Amino acid sequence: MNATNQPSILEHLTRCGKDDFPNGSDYIARYKAIETSLNENIHPFVTPAASSVDGGYLTGHGISHIQTVMARVSDLLGSSPLDSLSCYELYLLLAAIHVHDVGNIQGRKNHESAAADAVNKYDIIFGTDDVEKRLIFRIADAHTGRRGSDKDKVSKLQETDHVLGKTVHPRFMAALLRFADELADDRSRTSKTLLDSAALTKDSEIYHRYCYALHSVVVSGDTVRLSFDMTSGDAGKTFQKDGKDIYLLDEICDRMMKMHSERIYCVRFFPPTIRIDRIDVSITVYGPHYIDDPLAVINFRMEEAGYPPESSRGIFEICPQLENHLYGSPLTGKSLKDYLDRNSQ
Amino acid sequence: MTDQLNPFAVQTPEDIPAADVVSLFVDVFSDYHNIPKPGHTFLNGPRGSGKSMMFRYLEPDCQQLRLSKPLSEIPFFGVYVPIKNTEIKLTEFNRLTNRHAEVVLSEHFLVTFVAVKFFTSLLKAQITDTKGDYAKSLREYYNGKFAQLLRWNGWTEALPDIPSMAELVDIINAFRDVFSGYYSIVTSYLRSLAFTDTPLPYRGPLFGYLDFMLPVIQEVRSLGFMPSVPVFLLIDDADNLNLTQTRILNGWVSTRTSDVASIKISTQMTYKTYLTATSQAISSPHDFNEVNISAVYTSAKDKYISRVEQIVNRRLEKYGIEGTAQQFFPEYVKQEDAIRKISEEIRSKWPEEGRGYRASDDVTRYARPDYMKSLLGSSKSGPSYRYAGFEQLVHISSGIIRYFLEAASLMFGEMRSQNDGALVKHIDTGVQDKIVREQAKQFFFGEFDKLECDENVGEEGVSHVKRLRNLILALGGMFHSILISDLAERRVFSIALTDETDEEVVKVFKLGVRYGYFHESSIGNKEGTGRARLFILSRRLAPLFNLDPTSFAGYKFATTAALKKAMDNPQKFNRQVGHESTDEILEDPQMTLFDGAGR
Amino acid sequence: MSEKVLVKEVGSALPSHIDLFICAASYDSRTLSIVSTLAPLIVNKIIVFIDPGNSGAFGVDAVRYMSERFGEKVTVVEFDLANPLDIADKIVKAISNVQEATGEVVVDITTFTQEALLILLRVLQISTLSGANTTGAYTGAGDYSVGLNAEGKWLTKGVLEIRSVLGFAGESKPTQKQHLIVLAGYEVERAEKTIDAYEPALLSIGLGDPNESISKSLFDVNKWFHGKLIERYREVKHFVFSCEDSTHTKDAILKQVQDYPGYNVQIAPMNTKISTVGVALAAMEDTAIQICYALPAEYNREGYTSPGDFAYVFKLQIPKEK
Questions:
Q1: Average pLDDT, rounded, for chain B
Q2: Collapsing DSSP states into helix, strand and coil, what is residue C132?
Q3: CB-CB under 8 Å, B278 with A156
Q4: Which of helix, strand or coil describes residue A130?
Q5: Domain harbouring A1, CATH code
Q6: Using a CB-CB distance cutoff of 8 angstroms, which residues of chain B are in contact with residue C167?
Q7: ipTM above 0.95, yes or no
Q8: Quick one: B120 exposed, middle or buried, by C-beta within 10 A (0-12, 13-18, 19+)?
Q9: Domains, chain C, with CATH or none
Q10: How many Cα atoms occupy the beta-carbon half-sphere of B351 within 13 Å?
């Protein structure tokens, strides 16, 4: 169950029948085997292994994080996920959620692409068809990172594809995972104990502080509501990030801006029945022990409002193909006239 | 028969040794300057227009010879990727459509195919590795990053071992074999699909262009034995890809990665789509440059003649035949003398009777047509027009070098059998004429076609193919009538559409373009308000309709309604043309015989 | 070996009892040549394949005739000759639906298209009928392109598409070059277009053996065509194959392939159906061989052929799938 006490996507999966899957195979059993194997052999070790490789202390990437991402996906899909995804797609998405961060076991860099490598070492059975397996890893791979200089990984997937006779929607699944992962950076990924311990390196503390501050994520209709709290001590302190000093509030704002961008990006790939139009943020600053009245409350809403900002590049911002066009580079009224004049001769 | 080799016989360019390519090839890249530059390019032209030869010339072995430079100094590294019909467009792929993994398997298939060709090109480049350093670095890559890349793409089977003392050639061959093996896994899987409509699981690697092919190219290029220049993937005859494969290739073109790999794609004008697998459209010049060979030569005839002349002269020299192209393909002296005489008459009469701005204009317009007209009254045993002489043959080839070479090879064969063992030193004008007439006849719908057609063919049940045949008969006959008329412009070879009301007519013309019977262009419309489609009859058909192939300046406007009637009944159309104003027939199809103005 | 018999006596060369008779109905007037000689009592079941959009009135009438003559023993299966998957699926379904005992199977190969025949043979190879005693039968043509003189004869015009035959994809290797083998027949234009479409590194033209040719005129056309090609292409090999004995055809093809190893082999069968059976047998034995089919743009439906006086009957020994 998730925060709204609706059946999670996992529970919906277990209610599917064999005929809902390719060749009538038992995909539920397969999923459970994958889950068990990853939970036993990989998930508990991702965070410490990554920390060991990279030298920092990664926020939680274990079982708890996987469960949080699943819960966020459930929240986004609402009470009837099978209205938006088929049973087979639920399986694919759940498997992708499980593997999306396991590449961290080899270090954070390019971890999204190293997932297959990490999983293969443990002979985890993803079925007999490598196309299906690849799709799972491609969905997982699209949750972060770049391909060269291009961050737009989701568009590189098919909008609709066919696997073992079933129609699937890879872009939608990848966008769901991506946005849900963005929403899953909450308190469950760290702990007070860890924050208070000396284990955290200076470079990793800000990430843990951020996660700890985010205590509530609720998807309500077309709005995501995020609630942060922090002590006045944390609010007044700076933390190290990329060689600079940064306040926690600034980190929250940076991350909210990223989340806003991710929302705009990901909802492009959602069906019309799933709308996330805004993110409401509430930040409360308390005294040292959280039991007093708030010392400061900051609320703001992130949505596309007002008239879209004009771009200095004009239409070429949206339509780069007009910058280099058959009738002119860039295409303008004058270049069109010149083209017509040349051809009429 | 002599042992004298036929200098015009067709050879698949990929089989021609580099030295021969460099000696035979006439550099055309001043016309197609985008091709040897980084950036994706489409090169479109009918079969036989020289695309494959261009690509062969761009391969490293030819470039090294041409530039007299070592591999490390050539400006790009060309990887020749010929797409042979049915080689990768297997019918079994249809089993995957809307069923299973069509896109991902097709891309993997293409990637492994290209990868094999990439390593084949490295072999052909004959890289010297005296110290063994390159072998060492390539072997390290094989066992290290390459193996890791395979794992990242989900393939965990161990690679075959490469002995530590293996030479560079052996290691390159090992890569070729590995990719060839991956290719075979797919063909084996596809074969298993032939007679089942249930999607079967696929076990095997799955590689993509961006996440696999490009990293391989980048890494191998960085090892030191390749020049640090862009790789050109020379995809030849991409029309032979199926629809999904075409869309995947378009996806590769849509990437901004031409600094690593530029994709040069040749097509025979039947490329299936410009959409990618994710339904985005690629366009020129945003995503690629485009070159249309026939357009270049249609608008620059002198260049084409010059090119053919160079090609022929090189071939004659290579095969030990003395003389120039003009000497090897002589004119019919009697005919040309008669035409020269007519030319002189025209010139002398021009001050009083001339129609053109200059005497030379009238000579160009009327001398040859008047000669052809003068032959009309002669008996069957009298002289007929001969299509002979290098220039005429070049014009008849319609801008496609292969048509010239094919006709030339047949002429050579004919001369060889007539010569009874003696060497062929030139082609008799009678043989030239005979072969091009035969070629024209064969070109017009195959060997066993009849030239007369059924007069009573109605609208229903007439296929596009039949309509096209009728259209060509009608237009060819009309162009001949105009040629022997007294009209001011007699050398008409083209039709411009006044309207596009009847889409059927446009479709039939398009079919004709596809089969090579017409070239398509455009001109300003009659009203001066835009452009009209212009369809130029292929000069390969000139001998069939006794037209003058040396010119094609003239055109006629026609309504689609008039052309539809021509398609339905070409003989009736040609009879009308014989008696009435051509312009009126083409623009008012309701005009009946002997009604109104004559000529 | 093929046994050559008068058409009206073909029944005596066929098994005295036929469990399953397979044929195709088309505009070709030879559709009924063999089946009309069979007594209904000796045949247990008939499967007749037809493409209604392509068979013309003659094909439809032929099916009606068979249904009237053989009653419920006839199963009519419609397929779409433009869609090889449909051809395959319909054939597979029809064969797998055969419940009756099938000790003796006769296939009248005459009026199948080359492609449909090849697919049928492949299905027979992988089906439960692979163990049956299978006999092939073929009605020779008296004349091709009836009513037209020699210069004007045509069977098909134009080539819409060239595709690999389903089930005979071959095992091409991108490290090897192409060897195209054309078994030439009357359709010179189609053969030339096929060769032009492939531009192979090595081209082999099969000439019908004059001693095993269905007709002398076919042999003459073959010879003329070969002469034309050797001027156009630098590397043209030729070999002789049988037009009337599929085993001889198979052997000739396999020898030609073995004489030039190291190539990806594509075969374009454009001769008699018997020789096409030989091509199939060769490709079944050497699974690296691909068979291709050039789909014509137009057929001379009105005067395709007239039935000849002779038929050929032969054992169809389809090898087990490797």
A1: 86
A2: coil
A3: yes
A4: helix
A5: 1.10.3210
A6: 191, 194-195
A7: no
A8: buried
A9: 3-145+305-315 (3.40.50.10770), 156-299 (3.40.50.11700)
A10: 1
